[in-house]
Write a structure and sequence with these properties.
Two copies of one chain form a homodimer.
Chain A: H1 12-15, H2 33-46, H3 59-66, H4 70-82, E1 86-89, E2 93-96, H5 156-168, H6 184-198, E3 207-210, H7 213-224, E4 230-235, H8 239-248, E5 251-258, E6 261-262, H9 264-274, E7 278-283, H10 297-310, E8 313-317, E9 342-347, E10 359-362, H11 368-379, H12 384-395, H13 398-425, E11 429-432, E12 439-444, H14 450-458, E13 465-466, E14 479-482, H15 491-506, H16 508-511
Helix pairs in contact in A: 2-4, 3-4, 5-12, 6-12, 7-8, 7-11, 13-15, 14-15
């Protein structure tokens, strides 16, 4: 196959009477000349414009025709020979390899821009994300968007210094394949933080660093559920949980929420009534998403008892417990667990910024190998550089300082938002869950249609999330309003725009 | 629930005749005093040492007993009231909440270190990764370890500068929730690179940035396979493929490899014989893992024809095609595809370093929304900072320069390794796949037991991967030897140690 082709020139003029697959070369292109020749011939062969067994021109004749030296043509032909597109018969020339399949490609399918979908193009069912925008609340950015944070006080210089420190490091631990649990110094820093700030009982070997809390949910579904299994979910609740259940082929048992959080007794009643047994429960006990209630001590103990006696698991999604404005942060459910039944999930997306893609899980010790195995199969581990920089960010005190500063900032925004809502809507609204987190939920007198309002609000650029879209069996209407990314000076206008959107939805004729 | 407790002091001395759940406070602790009191009472309540309805001491009496001021005790009790552990009856005192479940916890399960596994602790089947070391070839680091790279020539200063540039940036695109496809400038830089260096046909909107190629395989199994589906896999082949198939509940159809790569005709024959239809084929056409063959043009066209006519997909894992030592890099299979049936997978783990956790897929345009949706459900997107820095690393020419330098470095290591193997083993070995990549495969005369040799080699610290562990239905023995992380001066010793391990395996009595 690697016979050199210098020997095989003959009858150049006759060969060139056939049209060449290459019209000419572009000397100013950044693509080398040999590559232009190679590509043209390869394409012609792949598209069967040149047929198996067909003779190629001599390198000398082709070089003359193209007005280039013979060397690039020789290199191109050698590559075609090496890769098996061509074969050379000593003394008689170079030919398109006779072993190539002869079945011709139809002319219509010769371009990627219009792929020919002659045979089925099967994909598994699942959510497809289109480029065109969905409803306003699924778009990112704009007043009331959830998941936005403020970086006004983020110590960028410190962060850049820490990141650069590890980017320059020659420590192999920073560049080699990472530990499936995550970079150990980062896990140590997290464990120290979680023990003191969140009353989580853990040591670094129980911590699994994940690429954001969505990955934690995904790993939980993979390790703790099998297709057909049932999981308790809060109703209304976080959509990300439903998504991972669907993907896993598991079913959701909706359990209603009241001002003490998840109604555990009702969950057990539904289990009996529907003759099924939940394998685990997803809960947001510190600040229920979206209603904002704090799970009461009584409910917490009931839920832990359920897990302990039924042999189930409790998933505590503690997504933004660091921000609490009236009392001390509520201690974690995990810290109350005496039967190692709670999987604790936290994220840095809210307290630092979402593009970090870093979160963490605290696992019961016996689950660690299972989650480590799943993580390794899914994507090995998160990038080490960011974990290393964050470990220092935590241990050097920058994280605690940033938390203190942003807590004041968000407290101020929250106050201004509540004041603006009160001034604009007065008694016509109930505000829920404003004591913590980066969003609050508003319910309106008369329960106007929240989806229509949110759609209308979208025309003002607002990103209000309709409560009803978070419901499964419950029916409730309202709007979830994020204020993490909403500057103080923009709050009044945003609330005025919201008012307009509501007025226009309730009395559409007034707008026409 | 939020009644203040200042009013409820009475009969302090009587109450304190019962043992307190708190023996004393530690004034030197970093845990605030109120927190020490709160934690002690909460624990006593959670563990049912204090029973529902039981009266708590007055704050005044408790403060006196603990020798601290009343304020921290008041704060602690207020928090206990707010969270529902306690309730206060005006005028008569503070009590453990009567709504708490009364069922006592058994004393034996009061510690995390010995969780009581009374009820089943069910997990889904899957690989569990234990902390104890597995066989030597699964451990990381040491001569012949696969997946190690050299960073001698890595431009750390440039990299640190680029990373710091974006860590300091106030551009919101760097910190907000990322695009599910990946950071656009990085996708643009990748598309430009892939078009010129790999003959991949793509524009940036077809690229999905992933957290390493394992995630690409995982997403492929999720989007293109359903449980029970069949996938062609190379035999012998990469274990990561088998892992994602198992997780997805899909089946592998092993297809043998020869020196032209995957035997497509044999694959089709096995489909007919076993009465099944593959949904897709995983292939490593540039440098088959582990045997090293380059897929011939004829086989490539056969495989593309299979995909086009049967409505299946071809997964091209182009894991280290950048390193090719004798000819130009082989063009991608994706570039030959005229029916948009190929999913191209590449990684930066080999050409930069593994801890980056960044790879990429080039998708047929109609598959993009499906993969974007799956990515969003799995973990949203990779961290933006590293992508932004890498975009500049590519467009500013550092990547091309690093590739050139490392190609020379690895060429040298490869040459030295082949020379050492030749000198040590002579005609007793066949070396396969040494023309490309960062590893080669050695087969020994007489086919000695490769697992036993690799185990023995492990006692020398060597990480030789037994070929037989990569086989499904085929039987072949040999060792896969990585040299990416093997310094030139360590090669001779490593080969001598390998020789010793082989001698000791073949004639164990000689060692005793």
């Amino acid at each position: 196959m690697t016979t050199r082709i210098g020997r095989v020139e003959s009858a150049a003029n006759r060969q060139l009477s056939e049209p060449l697959p290459i019209a000419g070369v572009d000397r100013r292109s950044r693509v080398p000349l040999y590559r232009q020749v190679y590509d043209s011939y390869r394409e012609a062969i792949v598209e069967r414009r040149l047929k198996p067994g067909q003779r190629l021109p001599s390198t000398r004749a082709l070089a003359t025709e193209l007005g280039i030296s013979r060397l690039p043509v020789l290199v191109a032909f050698e590559q075609l020979l090496a890769e098996g597109y061509c074969e050379s018969h000593t003394g008689s020339g170079t030919f398109v390899a006779s072993s190539l399949p002869v079945e011709p490609l139809e002319p219509s399918i010769a371009g990627l821009s219009e792929p020919a979908f002659e045979a089925p193009r099967r994909v598994a069912p699942g959510p497809a994300v289109r480029a065109q925008p969905g409803p306003p609340w699924l778009r990112y950015g704009g007043p009331f968007s959830i998941g936005q944070v403020s970086l006004e006080h983020f110590p960028r210089r410190v962060w850049a210094t820490l990141v650069a420190r590890y980017a320059r490091s020659t420590d192999p631990a920073i560049t080699r394949y990472p530990d499936a649990l995550g970079y150990r110094p980062f896990r140590e820093a997290l464990a120290a933080y979680l023990r003191t700030a969140r009353s989580v009982r853990c040591d670094p070997d129980q911590i699994l660093v994940v690429s954001g809390s969505q990955q934690a949910l995904e790993l939980i579904a993979r390790v703790l559920l099998e297709p057909g299994d049932v999981a308790w979910v809060e109703d209304p609740g976080y959509w990300g949980v439903r998504r991972v259940l669907e993907t896993r082929g598991a079913r959701a048992l909706p359990v209603p929420i009241d001002d003490e959080g998840l109604d555990v007794e009702e969950g057990r009643r539904r289990e009996r009534q529907r003759v099924l047994q939940g394998r685990l429960a997803f809960v947001t006990p510190s600040h229920q998403f979206p209603l904002g209630s704090t799970m009461s001590a009584s409910r917490r103990l009931q839920l832990l008892d359920w897990a302990r006696t039924e042999g189930t698991w409790v998933i505590e999604d503690d997504y933004n417990s660091e921000y609490r404005y009236e009392t001390q942060p509520v201690s974690s459910l995990q810290g109350m667990d005496r039967a190692a039944r709670v999987v604790y999930v936290g994220t840095l997306s809210k307290v630092l910024f979402p593009a970090l893609r870093l979160g963490y899980m605290v696992l019961p010790p016996d689950l660690v190998p299972h989650f480590a195995g799943a993580r390794r199969a899914v994507d090995i581990a998160p990038p080490t550089l960011l974990q290393a920089a964050l470990a220092d960010f935590l241990t050097e005190g920058h994280f605690a300082r940033h938390l203190r500063r942003t807590r004041e900032l968000y407290r101020e925004r929250r106050g201004a938002l509540i004041a603006a809502l009160d001034a604009t809507f007065g008694d016509a609204i109930d505000i829920l869950g404003d004591h913590a987190g980066l969003h609050l939920t508003v319910r309106f007198e008369g329960d106007p249609p929240d989806v229509a309002i949110a759609e209308r609000a979208g025309t003002y650029g607002l990103r209000a999330l309709p409560l009803s879209t978070l419901c499964l069996e419950e029916t409730c209407r309202g709007l979830v309003l994020g204020y993490g990314g909403l500057a103080l000076e923009d709050i009044d206008q945003a609330v005025r725009d919201l008012r307009s959107a509501i007025d226009e939805t309730e009395a559409p004729e007034a707008v026409l």
